[in-house]
Design brief:
This protein starts with a helix and ends in an 11-residue tail after the last helix. By secondary structure, it is α+β, with helices and mostly antiparallel strands. The chain is globular. It has a four-stranded mixed sheet. The longest helix is centred in the N-terminal third of the chain and has 36 residues.
Length: about 120
């Protein structure tokens, strides 16, 4: 009986690993397309609790985007497959390269600029 459980656990792990590899490959393809469109890209991985990891991308032209991975390992594998540089933190020169437009400023400002007013 113990051998059967071990074999099943091994099979489950193999299926999970194969699925994670496919997921990482799909993400790497999207990351690579973003990098190609924006003259290259760099990334920062942000852990989002049990939900997974957010991959924040910054193109060489200042454009930015993100993708979401179900785990940190999948996210790390995806950026490695895509061949982009990964930053530990989103600060300093890396953050300064991000160009934001009117849409982002309006969304970030919320009620402070142009958003609905709080009623007292």
């Amino acid at each position: 009986m113990a051998e059967t459980k071990t074999e099943t656990a091994g099979t489950d792990a193999a299926v999970r690993n194969t699925k994670e590899e496919r997921t990482a490959a799909k993400l790497a393809k999207r990351i690579g397309a973003f990098a190609k469109q924006h003259g290259g890209a760099e990334a920062q991985l942000a852990h989002v609790g049990e939900r997974g990891t957010r991959i924040v991308l910054v193109g060489q032209d200042g454009a930015w985007g993100d993708a979401f991975a179900t785990s940190h390992d999948v996210a790390l594998s995806a950026v490695e497959k895509a061949g982009v540089t990964v930053h530990e933190d989103f600060d300093g020169e890396f953050a300064l390269r991000v160009r934001t437009g009117a849409y982002e400023w309006k969304r970030m400002a919320g009620i402070q600029v142009g958003g609905p007013q709080n009623k007292a």
